[in-house]
Design a protein that fits this description.
The complex is a heterodimer of chains A (about 280) and B (about 350).
Chain A: H1 2-39, H2 44-50, H3 62-69, H4 73-104, H5 110-119, H6 125-138, H7 146-149, H8 157-169, H9 176-180, H10 185-196, H11 198-213, H12 217-222, H13 231-241, H14 246-266, H15 268-279
Helix pairs in contact in A: 3-14, 4-8, 4-11, 11-15, 13-14
Chain B: H1 2-14, H2 24-47, H3 53-83, E1 86-87, E2 95-96, H4 100-107, H5 109-140, H6 147-155, H7 162-172, H8 179-186, H9 201-210, H10 214-226, H11 229-237, H12 242-270, H13 274-278, H14 290-300, H15 304-332, H16 336-351
Antiparallel strand pairs in B: 1-2
Helix pairs in contact in B: 1-2, 2-3, 5-9, 5-10, 5-12, 5-14, 10-12, 12-15, 14-15
Classes of the chains: A mainly alpha (about 280), B mainly alpha (about 350).
């Protein structure tokens, strides 16, 4: 008993050190973040002298209104939403179907194809970027939102891998009864596996959201006209034209970040689980 | 290819389709036709008993990915390889020039500059990221009260979008009113100009990259929670100290994930783009990242052939580095499943 107590107290001592380190780290990780928000609420004059302080003297909420009217915000928001929601639907459907096939339908050639899927994860996007641009150009899709949406409907390696891991953990008996009843594999996927994988699909959805919402290079390459620009492009352009209005710039940056943070807090469980899945070993 | 697209285009236009949809329709038509052909073909093969229903279903389902793979990966790769031997400025027709692009590349001082910038960034930031995120994950894995709050705090920065991050850090590293120099002034050091100085812009970007190690940290945490507690208990009975436990239990167990994070961080670092773009390559091209230089060539100056050559060189570099890490992994990555799998297989073979 005493040995255990001793060990516990020794552990406690370490815990205080750990707390201290984590606390110092938290300040470093959180401070820029808080600073960004507080900068968005200050006047330019105050910014120039505020230094490290994070408490604004006057809370200038008007900065947000000013920042959001400096560029066609509603239009950009709408475009961002379109290029976020549709890829989520596309990725969830296609990757779930393909992942299900890789997990449950072990046939000749499936192993090889799966290795092929995984190896595409190593290919840098740069190699396919130029020809893809030319492909979309030939299809007449330049300066539209299609190049940002269409590829999502054909599955992407990482999410296929993630969902395959999820599906291969489900019990084998699941589809047997359905097969005896004469169910096709497509129907099994739709009626059994798709509903069962809701948590995993949620996680994929959240990750695709973060990816598409924050996508910068895609819109930069494909979109020229204001009509189709997304928020990230808006912010980059904003930095170019209003680089001196730091407070407005920060307000715009906060607005762009906010949906991701809100989504993170509302879906934290699914999100973390999804990430955990990708890292953990198959059991 | 353009002729077919034109034909389909005209067909839909004749039917009075809205102009907004028109660019997509030729594409949809071709894809729909391909899928119909696949389904009919599979049905036929099943009926003639050449193929099992299961095999047919598998290939039908996977065809979604295969078509995407051919259309957006394999096709572009072949095309890009071909284009890299051409002089092509988009407006004119491609012109075969053999190895000229590659020869030009080795005489291009900006190519060497961008390469060295990218190497500098990768070789310094990736090890720092891997070590820092691992150290944080170890701390986070302790059973402390309120640890979830810490996890959230450390993860938050990764949610800030790349452009927003850069906007924020340009200001944080502002020589006069920025956070970093204000902090340095507190301890009596006059900080450098950071993003306006060729020597300090890269350190600034590297520090910035450390701010977002939360993503890697989460992956480590997942791996750490998978380590069987019994191993630690056994080590404790043997009287192992905390440091020894980390060295002899945690590290070998986590090494596959360490490996995974190293490879993905490395590939990510080689492809750094936004930081260079937002600051136009930095003072004296000190932030001319390779991906940004490639973008400049292809999409600002429309030198598609030269850009493709650049892309292939990057591909080879990444391949070589990944191969080195993979090779070396035999020395330091410990796969438990490998051993178990091997043993199981042997047992199974004996039974058969």
């Amino acid at each position: 008993m005493s040995v255990k107590k001793e060990r516990n107290s020794a552990k406690k001592k370490w815990h205080w050190l750990a707390y201290l380190l984590l606390l110092i780290g938290s300040v470093a990780f959180l401070y820029p973040f808080v600073w960004m928000v507080s900068a968005s609420l200050r006047s330019l004059e105050e910014l120039a002298v505020s230094g490290m302080s994070i408490w604004p003297e006057h809370w200038r909420w008007g900065n947000y209104a000013k920042a959001l009217t400096a560029f066609p915000f509603p239009q950009y928001l709408l475009n961002t939403l379109i290029t976020t929601v549709l890829p989520i639907i596309g990725t969830v459907l296609s990757c779930s179907l393909v992942g299900y096939a890789f997990a449950r339908l072990k046939v000749r050639g499936s192993g090889f194809l799966f290795v092929l899927v995984l190896s595409t994860m190593l290919l840098p996007g740069e190699v396919t970027m130029i020809p893809q641009f030319i492909l979309f150009k030939n299809l007449g899709m330049l300066d539209t939102l299609y190049p940002l949406i269409v590829p999502a409907f054909f599955g992407s390696a990482f999410y296929i891998f993630l969902l395959r891991q999820f599906y291969s953990r489900l019990p084998i008996g699941l589809e047997e009864a359905a097969i005896i009843d004469g169910c096709g594999y497509f129907k099994i996927w739709r009626t059994i596996f798709l509903p069962l994988s809701k948590p995993a699909l949620m996680a994929v959805g959240v990750m695709v959201f973060m990816g598409s919402w924050n996508n910068f290079m895609g819109p930069l390459i494909y979109i020229n006209s204001d009509k189709w620009k997304t928020l990230t492009l808006g912010l980059a352009g904003f930095q170019g034209t209003y680089a001196t209005d730091t407070n407005l710039l920060m307000a715009a940056a906060v607005v762009i970040t906010l949906p991701c943070i809100l989504l993170f807090f509302t879906s934290q469980k699914a999100f973390m689980e999804g990430l955990t899945f990708s890292g953990s070993k198959e059991s | 290819m353009n002729g077919i697209i034109e034909g389909i285009y005209n067909f839909y236009e004749g039917m009075g389709m809205p102009a907004d949809l028109l660019p997509l329709l030729p594409f949809l038509t071709v894809i729909a036709l391909v899928f119909i052909v696949i389904i009919v073909l599979m049905r036929m093969l099943v009926k003639k008993k050449i193929m099992h229903t299961k095999t047919a279903s598998f290939y039908m389902f996977v065809s979604v990915w295969i078509i995407g793979f051919l259309l957006f990966t394999v096709g572009p790769m072949i095309f890009s390889f071909y284009i890299s031997f051409n002089k092509w400025e988009v407006v004119s027709d491609p012109q075969w020039t053999g190895l000229d692009n590659y020869r030009m590349l080795f005489k291009d001082t900006l190519f060497y500059k961008s390469l060295s910038v990218t190497f500098y960034y990768t070789l310094v930031s990736v090890p720092l990221q891997v070590i820092l995120s691992f150290a944080i994950a170890i701390l986070m894995n302790l059973k402390l009260r309120g640890i979830y709050i810490f996890r959230t705090i450390y993860y938050l920065p990764t949610l800030v979008q790349g452009v927003a991050q850069m906007v924020l850090f340009i200001w944080i590293f502002n020589p006069n009113v920025g956070l970093v120099n204000s902090l340095l002034r507190l301890v009596g050091i006059e900080g450098p100009g950071w993003f306006s100085s060729p020597d300090w812009s890269m350190p600034a970007v590297i520090i910035m990259s450390l701010w977002t190690v939360g993503g890697n940290m989460i992956i480590y945490l997942a791996g750490l929670s998978d380590i069987p507690q019994s191993l630690y208990e056994a080590a404790e009975i043997d009287g192992a100290t905390a440091a020894r436990k980390i060295w002899h239990v945690t590290l070998p167990q986590i090494s596959p994930i360490l490996f995974f994070n190293t490879v993905t961080s490395m590939i990510g670092a080689f492809q750094t783009f936004t930081q260079g773009f937002m600051i136009n390559g930095g003072p004296d091209n000190s932030l001319l990242f390779y991906a940004y230089y490639l973008y400049q060539n292809a999409f600002m100056w429309f030198k598609m052939g030269y850009g493709s050559a650049l892309a292939w060189v990057l591909f080879v570099i990444i391949l070589v580095f990944t191969a080195i890490v993979f090779r070396s992994s035999a020395l330091w990555v410990y796969y438990e499943t490998e051993q178990n799998g091997g043993r199981k297989r042997r047992v199974r073979q004996k039974r058969a």
